[in-house]
Request: fold
Amino acid sequence: MKKIALALLCLSSLSFAADYDPIRGEMLSLSCTSCHGIDGKSEAITPYIAGMGKANMYQILLDYKNGKRVETMMQKHAKGFSDEELEQISYYFSNIKR
Reply:
């Protein structure tokens, strides 16, 4: 049973990787640079998001978009993206070394 669960987990991560477009992810992430810095490496009080886990970042962005997290700028910003675009952004930042 554990082997089946592990195989399904691996397959689910591969299915997202096949859909990831690195150029699109990078283009979408440009809207984040004014607050989070180039490649998410903030030098200010805003969070450093480079290297953040894909699933964690995606959930945080969805929470902002759906009003579960409240912070004026992020809530408004996240609402401007589709769920798929937020996934692309999350994948992009997760691939950047801290």
